Each structure stands twice: as structure tokens, then as C-alpha cells.
Amino acid sequence: MKVLNVIAFLCVSFFVNAKEYKNDTIPATIKIDRFDSQLAEVKEALKKNAGYNSKIAFFVDMQIKSGKYRFFVYDLIKNTIIDQGLVAHGSGSETKVKGDLKFSNEVNSRSTSLGRYTVGRSYKGMFGKAYKLAGLDATNSNAEKRAIVLHSYSAVPSEEQDYYISNSQGCPMISEDFFKKIEKIIDTSKSKILLNIYY
């Protein structure tokens, strides 16, 4: 009888812990192992800098096709994705193989740069309201020189597509609807939010 009780306890514990770790909102397109690795790096960076937002972080998985959700808003307290949207990559990141991307930190490359960014202050530009991005890694250190910002564009759809979406000039470019959601999070944050673009 005691053995059965122990087995039952272990089974219940397993399912409860699994449910607490991730919920059903995790998209099928995400490779969990890769995401967990990126999440761990962001959490480690947060430990070293108290000036960053420790509750919310943004993740962009560039291995996911541009027509599918690959920009994720992550709740660091509840350990779950709370929103997701489409995001364009730079035209300079295209290769001869569609969906197989390359990346660059060079000025005028029009490529997406991988790495961690801080989301800075907003301003009014050619695409309306946008947020300045500062690169924290060697792979995106020229973000400010390249005028890489988080902005919206009317040509980016709000829903997933079966085809690739339009490209940017290197900026993470999202739909107007998704931008409105992100805008509320950024504007109400008392500290800078980390954006992690990985491949």
C-alpha cells in the first residue's frame, strides 16, 4: 500500500511541475531546448544588472519562418509566453536558400543582427512611433550606428501566414496590431526590457 502511495505521489508531482514550467500557449514552432538555453542566458544577465526589467523579456527566434509567430513576450515570473507575433528580418539576411538566413553587424548591411538588446526610449520616425535599440553583444554592437529600432509597418500581417512576409532594412519590424500590445508593455515598464534575437 505504501509503495502505491509513493508511486501516486510521484506521478502527481511530475504532472504538476510540468504544468507549472510551461503551459499550453507554447507554440509548436518553438524548439524548447534552444529556447530554454536562451532563457537561461537572459536570466543570468538579469542577475548581473538590476537595471533591467526582471518580469518581462522579448525573444525572437530567427530559425522560425517569417510567416509564423517568432516574436515572443515572456513572463519571467510565471515562466510562460504571454503574447506572440510576426516579425520581419532584414533584407540583407536573405541567402540563395529561402528561410536560410545570414546575419551581420556591419553598417549598411541591411541585415538582422543577433544578440541581446535593451529597448530604449521611443521617438517619432518615418514609421511612426518606434523604440531605439542598444546592442549588448559583439554581434549587435553597431545597432545605434545602424539606426536599428523596434517599429511597426502596415505590410506586416497580424496573423500567421503560409508564405514569407516582407523584409525590413535590418530592424525587427512587427505588425501595427502587435506593436500596440508591445507598446503598452514597454511604456509602463520602469526599467529597460531585454530583447534577445537568436538563431
Number of strands: 9
Stretches where pLDDT is under 50 for at least 5 consecutive residues are 2-23
Strand order of the largest sheet: 3-2-1-9-5-6-7-8-4
Strand content: 25-35%
Please identify, by name, the CATH architecture.
Beta Barrel
Sheet having the most strands:
9 strands, mixed
| CATH evolutionary superfamily | L,D-transpeptidase catalytic domain-like
Radius of gyration: 18 Å
Give the mean pLDDT.
Answer: 90
Considering DSSP H and I runs of 4 or more, what fraction of the residues is helical?
10-25%
The CATH first-level class comes to Mainly Beta
Number of helices: 3
Number of discrete domains: 1
Distance between the termini: 51 Å
Tell me, briefly, the overall form.
globular
H/E element order = HHEEEEEEEEHE
CATH fold descriptor: L,D-transpeptidase catalytic domain-like
Give me the secondary-structure category: alpha+beta
Give a written overview of the molecule.
This protein is of the alpha+beta class. The chain has one domain: Beta Barrel (L,D-transpeptidase catalytic domain-like). Helices cover 25% and strands 28% of the residues. It contains 3 helices and 9 strands; from the N terminus they run ααββββββββαβ. The protein has helices at residues 2-21, 32-48, 176-187; strands spanning 52-61, 71-75, 80-85, 87-88, 115-125, 128-135, 149-152, 173-174, 192-198. Strands 3-2-1-9-5-6-7-8-4 form a 9-stranded mixed beta sheet. It is globular, with a radius of gyration of 18 Å. It starts with a helix and ends with a strand. Mean pLDDT is 90; it is low at 2-23.
